[in-house]
Design a protein that fits this description.
Layout lengths: L1 H17 L19 H17 L8 H19 L2 H4 L4 H22 L2 H7 L2 H12 L1 H10 L2 H15 L2 H6 L4 H23 L2 H4 L1 H24 L19 H45 L1
Helix pairs in contact: 1-2, 2-3, 2-6, 3-5, 5-11, 5-14, 9-11, 9-13, 13-14
């Protein structure tokens, strides 16, 4: 395990060297503004190391699943440590782009990768036994069952989406690292639950219900995006001073952020909804064929 330790130490040293002094990010500083916060980097590295140890065709992990996982992991890492992160403190539109990557790219890729078996195999044997025992523990199992119910996952994701965009809470993320971390965790966590309920929980709800859940999600997120785009006043005054540094008025920055939420988000939900609808039709055809043969 010497190599991972050296890598982590190197990243922490880099963090100290690259950390900015709290001043607004300037355009000429953008590409040197990678942020290697220990609270972000260490979980990312540990997840990568554990998955790399546990993934393999001999353990039932396909090449496709590995490609999906590393794509999701890479986009997650870029969203959290690349210059996009500090840029989100200067531009509302960059902050929205970061959130859309977490919710619409990283989360569904990780869910489609089905990484849990590989992550379990990557743990030391004793830890693997402990995790297995905990997963069978009554309250933990019931909590997981509840959280992965489609209605619960949809509600939690929608609540996180709207609550965190309330101006007082959203602006607090720019003055408190703890609040900012909580925002990202809630967005990513509820997005993982939401996409899991769609892609892995269809047996509990059926594909038709999945189409409904994704349609209603597209609608309520588009409404928020439209409200931000056409708002006549600034929702987040904290960006009033920093947007001008990047050649935008604060209202233009807000409008771009609203469009990022509205248009790309709507496209991703549309594609996912069409995929679920196609799966629904295939399932219906199979069931119809079975009834025909049975008769």
């Amino acid at each position: 395990m010497r190599a991972p330790r050296v890598l982590i130490l190197g990243l922490l040293v880099s963090a100290a060297a690259l950390a900015h002094d709290g001043e607004p990010l300037q355009p000429h500083d953008l590409w040197a503004s990678w942020e290697f916060e220990p609270g972000t980097v260490i979980p990312l590295l540990l997840t990568a190391i554990i998955y790399a140890r546990g993934a393999g065709k001999s353990r039932g992990v396909s090449t496709r699943q590995m490609a999906l996982f590393w794509s999701g992991w890479t986009t997650l890492a870029l969203a959290l440590v690349s210059p996009l992160h500090p840029l989100g403190e200067a531009l509302f539109s960059a902050h929205m782009l970061q959130h859309e990557i977490l919710i619409l790219i990283s989360a569904p890729l990780l869910v489609l990768a089905q990484p849990l078996p590989a992550l379990l195999w990557g743990l030391p044997f004793q830890w693997r036994r402990t995790v297995g025992a905990c997963s069978k523990f009554g309250p933990a199992a019931k909590t997981w069952t509840f959280l992965t119910l489609p209605a619960a996952a949809w509600s939690l994701h929608a609540a996180a989406f709207w609550i965190w965009h309330a101006p007082p809470l959203f602006q607090a993320t720019l003055t408190s690292d703890a609040v900012h971390a909580a925002q990202h965790l809630s967005f990513l966590g509820t997005a993982l639950l939401f996409w899991w309920s769609l892609f892995r929980g269809h047996r509990k709800m059926g594909y038709g219900a999945g189409v409904l859940y994704i349609f209603t999600t597209a609608v309520h997120t588009s409404i928020l995006g439209a409200l931000l785009t056409f708002a006549p006043r600034l929702w987040y005054p904290v960006y009033a001073k920093t947007a001008a540094i990047w050649g935008l008025t604060p209202l233009e920055d807000q409008q771009i952020g609203g469009l990022i939420m509205w248009v790309p988000g709507g496209i991703v939900y549309l594609i996912a909804g069409l995929a679920l609808f196609a799966a629904w039709l295939r399932t219906s055809d199979v069931m119809a064929d079975r009834k025909t043969y049975a008769n």
